[in-house]
Design goal:
The protein is mainly alpha-helical. It folds into two domains: 101 residues, Orthogonal Bundle (DNA polymerase, domain 1); 179 residues, hpI Integrase, Chain A (Orthogonal Bundle). It is built from 14 helices and three strands. Helix 2 runs antiparallel to helix 3, helix 7 runs antiparallel to helix 9 and helix 7 packs across helix 11. The protein starts with a helix and ends with a helix.
Length: 327
């Protein structure tokens, strides 16, 4: 290698989040990482927010660990390396849930490398996830949801932004959509005849979600009268739009919801996902079967939906303790 080529190689930048000057072996690590991320994008059709902000972040953290421990060859990574990495994460104060996610990322990565015959063995095999305590989701009471909807309906309905915000809030609770799904809804997602929304969730999986009569009336009013005011003669493929005719962002909607919650006097630190949790919990409280709730939420595994039965059991225990004479 000539001097010019050597200098060019030495100055090769790391991927976002890495340390300063990687060895050639770690450059190959990043090369494999990019190949893996392209696979996630193409073969598994994961959203950029998932594979870039989660998988890339986790892999860069592992690369930082390798460099700090002078490990510059993928063939030198074994189970003891991964176990030491887990200990390293604990010393940095990472929660068990975050460590578990990093293990899952590494497991997917090394299994991909093994399937592509780029490594001879998987160093994450036999590595156990840390035990996670079951965290029950934050939910709103029916009264709190009513308060949110009442406040969002108060502003002048001639204001198209206020009217849009009210429809989005109502729809979020009426359908249990993820906020990322809500803001990405295209105009063609709503079927007026059936009253269903065609939603593409995680992994680009499609599902049809009924929206209920009240939400349907509000959505039709939005489409017929409010959205045209926002468009002002322009066009947009998005269902919920800004004054610039762009799709609403999840962060902007989070800000809107927090403002509405504050106006409603709700002290809980709520998020759009709390409405999704509330949707599922309230359905089960009123007799909906678990399988139907699973389909509406778009959960691939019913065990994820079963978490809401724990919420209901926890609520019943609380009621028993409060009102039973020997509770």
């Amino acid at each position: 290698m000539g001097d010019r080529a050597r200098k060019k190689s030495e100055k090769r930048p790391l991927a976002k989040g890495g340390a300063d000057t990687p060895s050639p072996k770690l450059n190959s690590f990043y090369s494999y990482q990019d190949t893996f991320l392209k696979y996630l994008s193409a073969a598994r059709r994961l959203a950029p927010n998932t594979y870039d902000k989660s998988y890339r972040y986790d892999l860069n953290a592992f690369a930082d660990f390798l460099q700090q421990h002078s490990i510059d060859d993928l063939d030198h990574i074994d189970r003891s390396t991964v176990r030491e990495y887990i200990s390293w994460c604990r010393r940095k104060g990472l929660a068990s849930r975050s460590i578990s996610r990093r293990i899952s990322t590494l497991r997917s990565f090394f299994r991909f490398l093994l399937a592509e015959n780029l490594i001879s063995s998987d160093p994450t095999s036999m590595i156990e996830h840390p035990k996670l305590g079951r965290t029950l989701p934050k939910i709103l009471t029916v009264g709190e949801v009513d308060a949110l909807l009442a406040v969002s309906a108060k502003p002048d309905r001639e204001n198209p932004l206020a009217a849009r915000n009210h429809v989005m809030l109502h729809l979020l609770y009426a359908t249990g959509l993820r906020v990322s799904e809500l803001v990405k809804l295209p105009l063609v997602s709503f079927n007026r005849h059936s009253g269903n929304l065609r939603v593409f969730g995680k992994g680009n999986k499609e599902r049809l979600v009924p929206i209920g009569e009240q939400a349907r009336v509000l959505l039709e009013e939005y489409l017929d009268h409010v959205r045209p005011q926002l468009l002002r003669g322009r066009t947009s493929p998005a269902l919920f739009i800004t004054l610039q005719t762009k799709a609403m962002t999840r962060n902007r909607y989070w800000q809107i919801l927090k403002k509405i919650a504050m106006q409603a006097g709700i002290q809980k630190d709520i998020s759009p996902h709390a409405l999704r949790h509330s949707f599922a919990t309230h359905l089960l409280e009123n007799g909906a079967d678990l399988r139907s709730v699973q389909l509406m939420l778009g959960h691939s595994d019913i065990s994820t939906t079963q978490l809401y039965t724990h919420v209901e059991q926890s609520r019943l225990k609380s009621i028993h303790k409060k009102f039973h004479p020997r509770g």
